[in-house]
Amino acid sequence: MSQFIIRQFDKYFVEKDDHFLHQLSTFYCNIWRFDPNFAEYMQCTNGDCGKYFSYNDYHQKNITCCTICSSPLTDAWKEDDVAQTIINLINMEEDFFGVVAVLPDFTNTILGFCWGYNKKLETITDKKVQQAVFNDSGYTPYFNEIASDTSYRNQGIGSSLCRTLTEWMQRTSPNIPGYLHTHENSPARRLFEKAGYNFLCYDEKMGDGRIFMYVDKCKNLTPENL
Ligand SMILES: CC(C)(COP(=O)(O)OP(=O)(O)OC[C@H]1O[C@@H](n2cnc3c(N)ncnc32)[C@H](O)[C@@H]1OP(=O)(O)O)[C@@H](O)C(=O)NCCC(=O)NCCS
Ligand SMILES: [Zn+2]
Which residues cross the membrane (predicted)? Predict the structure, then answer.
């Protein structure tokens, strides 16, 4: 079992520590590049195709253009783009809540991340989600991202991260419905169910087993079960 610390990060934290954003975006990109469930190392540049290729496809099998449509490939994840996305989110200030799990030593190596934010209702395109989360406040707490280091899985990091984010939602938006987007076979689905999210519907637009989960009011989340 490894020790870890859960640390909140916000706009002011990131401004003080310019190494942190770089470390977080690198860690983030490497999860989707190298986690065997994703293996999103390179991607077809044809927007209608968008097929992903793994590190082995590219470096060992020497696949350099798309095996479906022959278009060139590009990096699936780019650190600079991810850093910009994170900056845009943390600039929402009190509408954003992010945490990382770090090693409790001087390196502060990141072992996991999790974040969510209050999303404006008008930005939701799925009709069933719109109906499920409709409320007078004009926003819904959206559970956006969670992942832990592949070498540190199954040691409670994901549960701790998920607990901290759902506690924030419960505290700040008790009477407002919340939702998230995941995959029906995601290893995170059990975490979300334990935290009190229920299956809502399939994502018919993106397909491929993607689902929406929701909670009718954030006070009904159950972070204590994690
Ligand atoms: C989902 C994820 C964050 C869980 O992180 P974690 O640090 O392993 O979390 P925990 O140690 O708290 O374990 C959470 C649950 O996952 C299960 N689990 C963890 N590792 C597992 C493994 N290798 N095989 C099977 N189950 C596993 C645990 O059994 C645990 O459930 P339980 O305690 O009720 O049995 C992690 O698997 C991950 O980063 N996955 C890739 C990113 C991802 O899919 N994110 C969600 C996108 S929507
Ligand atoms: Zn293609």
Answer: none
Cα dihedral 39, 190, 208, 120 in deg (nearest 10)? -100
- pLDDT tens digit string along 77-128? 999 999 999 999 999 999 999 999 999 998 899 999 999 999 999 999 999 9
User: Quick one: which of 9, 179, 19 has its CA closest to 96?
Assistant: 9
- For residue 21, give both structure tokens: 């954003």
Instruction: Round to whole Å and give the CA distance between 115 and 72.
Output: 33
Q: Is residue 104 part of a domain?
A: yes
| CA 164 – CA 18 distance, rounded (Å) | 24
pTM: 0.95
205 is a domain residue: yes
Q: 213 is in which domain, residue-wise?
A: 5-20+80-225
Give residues (CB < 6 A) around ligand 1.
Answer: 35, 146-148, 153-159, 182, 186-188, 190-191
Query: Atom 1 of ligand 1 has which residue's CA nearest to it?
Result: 188
Q: In what order do the strands lie in the sheet with 73-75?
A: 52-53, 42-44, 73-75
